[in-house]
Amino acid sequence: MEVNAEARRILAVSISKLYASRTQRGGLRLHRSLLLSLVMRSARDIYHSSRESECQSSEERMDTSSDPEEGQQQPGMPEPQTTLISSEPAQEEPDSADEECEITEDKENLSPTRQSRKRRGKASAAPDFLPIKRARLEPGEERYAAPPSCCRSGAGDSLIALSLNRVIPPPNIHTAYECLHKPHR
Amino acid sequence: MAGPGGDMQWCFSQVKGAIDDDVAEADIISTVEFNHTGELLATGDKGGRVVIFQQEIENKSQPQFRSEYNVYSTFQSHEPEFDYLKSLEIEEKINKIRWLPQKNAAQFLLSTNDKTIKLWKISERDKRPEGYNLKEEDGRYKDPNTIMSLRVPVLIPMDLMVEASPRRVFANAHTYHINSISVNSDNETYLSADDLRINLWHLEITDRSFNIVDIKPANMEELTEVITAAEFHPHQCNTFVYSSSKGTIRLCDMRASALCDKHSKLFEEPEDPSNRSFFSEIISSISDVKFSHNGRYMMTRDYLSVKIWDLNMENRPVETYQVHEYLRSKLCSLYENDCIFDKFECCWNGNDSVVMTGSYNNFFRMFDRGQRRDVTLEASRENSKPMQVLKPRKVCAGGKRKKDEISVDSLDFNKKILHTAWHPQDNIIAVATTNNLYIFQDKVN
């Protein structure tokens, strides 16, 4: 489906732009972030509606390969979450996907041992356009649970960013860009 | 003034800036503005510097060619800063310069970066005192016992020195990035606008400003639009407009209430549903709004077009000019290379008969409102022989490319003209490419 592929590509481009804008000099631009989120929402809606018409009955299991011990878990989302990046203090995080906002707040207070509530069903093959963001392990190193407090640095509360340390669970575009925390510096 | 746009023949006059292709980021021009007489032309750059050019007295030996602009003053207006609370760097890039009308011998301008506005005084010094009674020429104080007589210092001529000094610093009033400043016709106040708020300042008072527009929603997750530009009416000191990322313009009257969240007029054109795409919202975002000199119209620039609005008609513009419609089919690529986020400015000529705006490939466009004619010109080093007449350019949108036409795919999207300015009285224009400032003049018959 051409529209579907187009939507996916635009989504991928948008995510990388949002990600790159974190490191821009002068801080995150509200206007630009707003426009990016509007495009992402359009693309997301198109992608959704075209996927729903595609996969009617497949019951593929979600690959829940992301470690349950890792810091934040990703609760299953009914829709992908596009989050606006702003330079405002933490309590004013703009979120273009209004309906997910409360889930964002809860997510940040999750305990590390919370089970993954990934959504099953209607998953297709890994979205190949998304980068794997898992940190590369040195030999002998092990993954460990990151404490919740590390997900937000003091001054960086205002910056919500795509995580460097999170696995993007391959099968599910829905959770692709929902988990956000400031990377360790 | 010379004849209408169609009869104008634009000639190269001057180009300022480095020649080499390797552009230092600090040299990127970020704003261009003539003062109210057109004698001075100010530019701001990404490095936080302001360069002011002055028009020299007419060249008697070449009366057919108006005088040139030479560097008058250069100063560092803003420095990079760091907001420790938010861990954010504040760019020194000059977003806007606005001149104050001249009241005395000195010139004043406002320059702003993302967070701080500064009032600069530019004054000339062409005399210095000599013959102090108590001091030597080098400044050391004389031994009082050696002073036998009284004499008064005299002022003697010296080489002209132009000094720029910051007279006011208006800081800490904006949480978001300042995109506009506009001096009121009352010559006492000015406004500054960021993404969500507009503040009113008094030029003499730096520790306070009044918030007159606030569109920040209580819940930032409900944010749907931001302020993109704002300007005071040229004659009515109570009226200003601000444009939004949704393509609307609101006109506000400060007499109505202290907080102008409710607009007096809302200018909006219904979207053409056949043009809907992923990027409809981005391309309808207004990047610049400018009142006409007579105050009856305003012009807005969005990504693909320029629109002229009659202040008495809110439901649609009276004129729409396509700047580069051939880009409509390329929006996806322009999104990927970030060009779709470029903020083009626009300007009126002195008698509001012609409007001008920039495009890509160092092209700029002029639209003659009366004659319904438009022209595309190019600012390039190849066309920069003195008084060389600029040849109109044409972009071939598709199909067979004629000779001298450029196809859309060969346009250089890194060469963009975002900032242009038109002399308030004469047909002299200043066009900024990435790091060069071109000055063109109409060939006087």
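qc> Chain B touches chain A through 36 residues (CB under 8 Å).
qc> done
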